[in-house]
Amino acid sequence: GAVVSQHPSWVICKSGTSVKIECRSLDFQATTMFWYRQFPKQSLMLMATSNEGSKATYEQGVEKDKFLINHASLTLSTLTVTSAHPEDSSFYICSVPYSRGYEQYFGPGTRLTVT
Amino acid sequence: DAKTTQPPSMDCAEGRAANLPCNHSTISGNEYVYWYRQIHSQGPQYIIHGLKNNETNEMASLIITEDRKSSTLILPHATLRDTAVYYCIVRGYSNTGKLIFGQGTTLQVKP
Fold first, then answer.
1. What is the pLDDT of residue A78?
2. What integer pLDDT is reported at residue A104 of this predicted model?
3. What count of Cα atoms within 13 Å lies in the side-chain half-sphere of residue A97?
4. A75, A14 Cβ separation under 8 angstroms
């Protein structure tokens, strides 16, 4: 069964609104989770590292005020896309490291479309 | 983390072995080779990883050359469901665990 879930699986929102995406670790606790973004026909791009109990660490070029990350508990991280614009339309995927970090389990992804 | 080079695409006949190469000539001694795959519109799936010895699990085999500058992922009997993008990633264990994805190889398994 699934180890990592994401909600919603897809969402359509209007330009200027905010959207929250949840990532849940179902089988184990995770002090760290990762958020990726993937545009059509492109590879995954790491956006940020979500840290339980502290601020997220963002990759270079990712706007921290636009992509708000909250690691609410050891099983939940949320990504909020604030003031979304059509260029934010993408496939957002979270992952949870496992087995002392040797492996990672990925969520099924959330397809965001901003109109 | 070392950079990897993979062919952009490959075809394989159903039932035959699929051999996916990866070059990582700048790999350092403490870096592992990881393979993930992504089936269309899904999250990536872990396949296998290794340091210097060949590895095998229920999904695939990983062959790493003696100088560790390249590796090959082998799917012994490819099925149509193995059609996916396969990513070879080199990562040291000393970092936070984040994975940096390259462009990968699109494997098309044909009937």
1. 97
2. 87
3. 16
4. no
Residue A89 contacts B, CB cutoff 8 Å? no
Q: Is the pLDDT of residue A53 over 60?
A: yes
* Nearest Cβ partner for A108 among B42, B49, B87: B42
The DSSP code sequence of A21-65 is: EEEEESSS--SEEEEEEE-TTS--EEEEEEETTS--EEPTT--TT
Residue B57 tokens read as 């699990």
Q: Is A86 on the interface with B (CB under 8 A)?
A: no
A90/B50 Cα distance (integer angstroms): 32
B96/A44 CB distance under 8 A: no
**Residue numbers in B near A91 (CB within 8 A):** 41
Q: Write out pLDDT tens, residues A62-101.
A: 999 999 999 989 999 999 999 999 999 999 999 998 866 6
Cβ–Cβ below 8 Å for B96 and A32: yes
Instruction: Please determine, for residue B96, whether its predicted confidence score (pLDDT) is greater than 70.
Output: no
- Residue A26 CA to residue B40 CA, distance in Å, equals 23
> Rounded distance, CA B69 to CA B22, Å?
9
Per-residue pLDDT tens over the stretch B37-81: 999 989 999 999 999 989 999 999 999 999 999 999 999 999 999
